[in-house]
Amino acid sequence: MKLITSILALGASFVMAASAFAAEGAEAAGGGSWLTLLLYIVNAAIFVAICVYFAGPGVRQFFAQRARTMRERRGRAEADFAAAEQAAHDAARQLEQLAAEKARLLEEMEAGTAYQIKAIREAALAGAARIGRDAELTAAAAVEEARRRVRSYLAGVAGVLARELVQQNFNADDQRRMLAGFAEKLTLEARP
Predict the structure, then answer these.
(1) Domain limits at 59?
(2) Is 18 within 8 Å of 34 (Cβ atoms)?
(3) What's the start-to-end Cα distance of the chain, in Å?
(4) Is 27's pLDDT higher than 60?
(5) In the prediction, which pLDDT does 32 show?
(6) How crowded is the C-beta side of 91, counted as CA atoms within 13 Å?
(7) 56 found inside a domain
(8) What is the pLDDT of residue 104?
(9) What's the pTM?
Protein backbone atom coordinates (compact mmCIF):
# COMPACT_ATOMS: atom_id res chain seq x y z
CA MET A 1 0.00 0.00 0.00
CA LYS A 2 2.81 2.38 0.85
CA LEU A 3 4.51 1.53 -2.43
CA ILE A 4 1.40 2.38 -4.45
CA THR A 5 1.01 5.65 -2.58
CA SER A 6 4.62 6.49 -3.31
CA ILE A 7 4.20 5.70 -7.02
CA LEU A 8 1.05 7.82 -7.25
CA ALA A 9 2.83 10.71 -5.54
CA LEU A 10 5.74 10.35 -7.96
CA GLY A 11 3.32 10.28 -10.93
CA ALA A 12 1.49 13.37 -9.67
CA SER A 13 4.78 15.22 -9.37
CA PHE A 14 5.62 14.22 -13.00
CA VAL A 15 2.22 15.45 -14.20
CA MET A 16 2.68 18.77 -12.46
CA ALA A 17 6.18 19.09 -13.83
CA ALA A 18 4.93 18.21 -17.33
CA SER A 19 2.15 20.79 -17.15
CA ALA A 20 4.69 23.42 -16.09
CA PHE A 21 6.99 22.51 -19.01
CA ALA A 22 4.03 22.54 -21.38
CA ALA A 23 3.02 25.97 -20.20
CA GLU A 24 6.57 27.22 -20.71
CA GLY A 25 6.75 25.62 -24.14
CA ALA A 26 3.41 27.15 -25.16
CA GLU A 27 4.52 30.64 -24.17
CA ALA A 28 7.72 30.18 -26.13
CA ALA A 29 5.75 28.99 -29.19
CA GLY A 30 3.40 31.89 -28.96
CA GLY A 31 0.41 30.25 -27.30
CA GLY A 32 -0.67 27.23 -25.25
CA SER A 33 -1.90 24.03 -26.70
CA TRP A 34 -3.87 21.52 -24.77
CA LEU A 35 -2.73 18.90 -27.16
CA THR A 36 0.86 19.53 -26.22
CA LEU A 37 -0.08 19.28 -22.56
CA LEU A 38 -1.87 16.02 -23.25
CA LEU A 39 1.20 14.74 -25.08
CA TYR A 40 3.40 15.55 -22.11
CA ILE A 41 0.95 13.86 -19.76
CA VAL A 42 0.80 10.73 -21.92
CA ASN A 43 4.61 10.68 -22.19
CA ALA A 44 4.91 11.07 -18.42
CA ALA A 45 2.33 8.32 -17.84
CA ILE A 46 4.15 5.98 -20.22
CA PHE A 47 7.44 6.80 -18.47
CA VAL A 48 5.88 6.11 -15.07
CA ALA A 49 4.27 2.89 -16.34
CA ILE A 50 7.58 1.70 -17.80
CA CYS A 51 9.34 2.57 -14.53
CA VAL A 52 6.66 0.78 -12.49
CA TYR A 53 6.64 -2.24 -14.81
CA PHE A 54 10.39 -2.74 -15.04
CA ALA A 55 11.70 -1.15 -11.87
CA GLY A 56 8.68 -1.92 -9.67
CA PRO A 57 9.53 -5.58 -8.85
CA GLY A 58 13.18 -4.71 -8.21
CA VAL A 59 12.23 -1.73 -6.08
CA ARG A 60 9.57 -3.77 -4.30
CA GLN A 61 12.08 -6.58 -3.72
CA PHE A 62 14.74 -4.10 -2.55
CA PHE A 63 12.39 -2.47 -0.07
CA ALA A 64 11.01 -5.87 1.06
CA GLN A 65 14.55 -7.15 1.58
CA ARG A 66 15.46 -3.93 3.36
CA ALA A 67 12.39 -4.23 5.63
CA ARG A 68 13.20 -7.90 6.32
CA THR A 69 16.82 -7.01 7.15
CA MET A 70 15.70 -4.20 9.41
CA ARG A 71 13.20 -6.49 11.17
CA GLU A 72 15.92 -9.13 11.65
CA ARG A 73 18.34 -6.53 13.00
CA ARG A 74 15.66 -5.18 15.29
CA GLY A 75 14.83 -8.71 16.47
CA ARG A 76 18.53 -9.44 17.11
CA ALA A 77 18.92 -6.11 18.87
CA GLU A 78 15.88 -6.82 21.05
CA ALA A 79 17.18 -10.33 21.80
CA ASP A 80 20.61 -8.93 22.61
CA PHE A 81 19.02 -6.27 24.79
CA ALA A 82 16.96 -8.91 26.62
CA ALA A 83 20.09 -11.06 27.05
CA ALA A 84 22.01 -8.04 28.34
CA GLU A 85 19.22 -7.22 30.79
CA GLN A 86 19.15 -10.85 31.94
CA ALA A 87 22.94 -10.82 32.34
CA ALA A 88 22.67 -7.57 34.32
CA HIS A 89 20.00 -9.12 36.56
CA ASP A 90 22.14 -12.25 36.98
CA ALA A 91 25.19 -10.15 37.80
CA ALA A 92 23.20 -8.11 40.34
CA ARG A 93 21.87 -11.32 41.90
CA GLN A 94 25.39 -12.78 42.04
CA LEU A 95 26.68 -9.58 43.61
CA GLU A 96 23.93 -9.82 46.24
CA GLN A 97 24.84 -13.47 46.85
CA LEU A 98 28.52 -12.58 47.10
CA ALA A 99 27.73 -9.76 49.52
CA ALA A 100 25.64 -12.15 51.63
CA GLU A 101 28.42 -14.77 51.48
CA LYS A 102 30.97 -12.12 52.44
CA ALA A 103 28.83 -11.03 55.40
CA ARG A 104 28.35 -14.66 56.48
CA LEU A 105 32.09 -15.40 56.22
CA LEU A 106 32.91 -12.22 58.12
CA GLU A 107 30.45 -13.18 60.82
CA GLU A 108 31.89 -16.70 61.02
CA MET A 109 35.43 -15.32 61.19
CA GLU A 110 34.46 -12.87 63.93
CA ALA A 111 32.72 -15.67 65.85
CA GLY A 112 35.76 -17.94 65.38
CA THR A 113 38.10 -15.16 66.46
CA ALA A 114 35.96 -14.42 69.52
CA TYR A 115 35.94 -18.13 70.39
CA GLN A 116 39.73 -18.37 69.99
CA ILE A 117 40.25 -15.24 72.11
CA LYS A 118 37.95 -16.66 74.78
CA ALA A 119 39.78 -20.02 74.70
CA ILE A 120 43.17 -18.29 74.91
CA ARG A 121 41.95 -16.08 77.77
CA GLU A 122 40.58 -19.10 79.66
CA ALA A 123 43.80 -21.03 79.07
CA ALA A 124 45.85 -18.04 80.26
CA LEU A 125 43.70 -17.69 83.39
CA ALA A 126 43.94 -21.42 84.06
CA GLY A 127 47.72 -21.28 83.51
CA ALA A 128 48.03 -18.29 85.82
CA ALA A 129 45.94 -20.07 88.48
CA ARG A 130 48.06 -23.22 88.10
CA ILE A 131 51.27 -21.18 88.35
CA GLY A 132 49.84 -19.47 91.43
CA ARG A 133 48.98 -22.84 93.04
CA ASP A 134 52.38 -24.23 92.10
CA ALA A 135 54.04 -21.14 93.58
CA GLU A 136 52.01 -21.52 96.79
CA LEU A 137 52.87 -25.22 97.04
CA THR A 138 56.51 -24.51 96.27
CA ALA A 139 56.60 -21.71 98.84
CA ALA A 140 54.85 -23.91 101.43
CA ALA A 141 57.30 -26.75 100.72
CA ALA A 142 60.24 -24.33 100.94
CA VAL A 143 58.92 -22.99 104.28
CA GLU A 144 58.39 -26.52 105.59
CA GLU A 145 61.88 -27.53 104.44
CA ALA A 146 63.33 -24.44 106.09
CA ARG A 147 61.44 -25.22 109.31
CA ARG A 148 62.64 -28.82 109.23
CA ARG A 149 66.23 -27.67 108.72
CA VAL A 150 65.91 -25.09 111.50
CA ARG A 151 64.42 -27.74 113.82
CA SER A 152 67.11 -30.19 112.89
CA TYR A 153 69.79 -27.56 113.44
CA LEU A 154 68.19 -26.48 116.73
CA ALA A 155 67.86 -30.13 117.84
CA GLY A 156 71.52 -30.70 117.06
CA VAL A 157 72.52 -27.51 118.90
CA ALA A 158 70.21 -28.45 121.82
CA GLY A 159 71.75 -31.93 121.94
CA VAL A 160 75.26 -30.51 122.01
CA LEU A 161 74.29 -28.00 124.74
CA ALA A 162 72.45 -30.69 126.70
CA ARG A 163 75.48 -33.01 126.58
CA GLU A 164 77.74 -30.20 127.67
CA LEU A 165 75.34 -29.26 130.48
CA VAL A 166 74.95 -32.87 131.50
CA GLN A 167 78.70 -33.34 131.49
CA GLN A 168 79.17 -30.22 133.55
CA ASN A 169 76.28 -30.63 136.02
CA PHE A 170 75.66 -34.38 136.18
CA ASN A 171 77.41 -36.11 139.04
CA ALA A 172 77.36 -39.59 140.60
CA ASP A 173 74.42 -38.86 142.98
CA ASP A 174 72.33 -37.71 140.07
CA GLN A 175 73.28 -40.83 138.24
CA ARG A 176 72.18 -43.08 141.15
CA ARG A 177 68.94 -41.26 141.61
CA MET A 178 68.17 -41.55 137.94
CA LEU A 179 68.91 -45.27 137.87
CA ALA A 180 66.79 -45.80 140.99
CA GLY A 181 63.85 -43.92 139.45
CA PHE A 182 64.21 -45.95 136.25
CA ALA A 183 64.28 -49.24 138.16
CA GLU A 184 61.26 -48.23 140.22
CA LYS A 185 59.35 -47.38 137.05
CA LEU A 186 60.22 -50.75 135.55
CA THR A 187 59.03 -52.52 138.65
CA LEU A 188 55.73 -50.66 138.67
CA GLU A 189 55.13 -51.46 135.07
CA ALA A 190 56.08 -55.10 135.50
CA ARG A 191 53.39 -55.70 138.10
CA PRO A 192 50.20 -57.00 136.79
Answers:
(1) 2-105
(2) no
(3) 156
(4) no
(5) 55
(6) 6
(7) yes
(8) 92
(9) 0.38
